[in-house]
């Protein structure tokens, strides 16, 4: 089954419909089936919306305590005046990783060259000598 993204308005509409179904006594599986989404998606949307509270005039007019999370909002904002320490540390580690890779490559090439030289010494042939 291919997943698809739902717009924030569509999510809000489906959650309102889910609240009505829940008020009628439907369980989560029945609600998610009626909405055409998985139970996990239903849980994720409810979690994004935040906890609910009832208004004084009845339970049909429930409102979220927190504003719903919109997909377009950034999840992380770096501190003012500069980049985050984690980002700096990540770049530092990437540079160190690149240096270590070059070092290992150089050592491996040197090792291969020494092994070849040792092999040719044991056989009595010089690898640099030309056949003529």
UniProtKB/TrEMBL annotation:
SUPFAM superfamilies: Homeodomain-like
Region called Disordered, residue ranges: 49-92
Domain of life assignment: Bacteria
One Pfam family, short name: HTH_23
InterPro entries xrefs: Homeodomain-like_sf
Biased composition (Basic and acidic residues): 54-63
Annotated protein name in UniProt: Helix-turn-helix domain-containing protein
Organismal lineage: Bacteria, Pseudomonadati, Pseudomonadota, Alphaproteobacteria, Hyphomicrobiales
């Amino acid at each position: 089954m291919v997943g698809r993204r739902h717009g924030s308005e569509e999510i809000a509409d489906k959650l309102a419909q889910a609240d009505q179904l829940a008020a009628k006594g439907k369980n989560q599986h029945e609600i998610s089936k009626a909405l055409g989404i998985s139970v996990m998606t239903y849980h994720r949307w409810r979690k994004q919306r935040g906890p609910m509270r009832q208004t004084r005039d009845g339970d049909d007019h429930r409102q979220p305590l927190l504003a719903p999370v919109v997909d377009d909002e950034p999840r992380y904002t770096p501190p003012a005046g500069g980049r985050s320490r984690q980002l700096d540390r990540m770049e530092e580690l990437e540079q160190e990783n690149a240096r270590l890779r070059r070092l290992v490559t150089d050592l491996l090439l040197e090792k291969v060259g020494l092994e070849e030289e040792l092999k040719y010494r044991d056989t009595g042939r010089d690898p640099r000598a030309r056949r003529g």
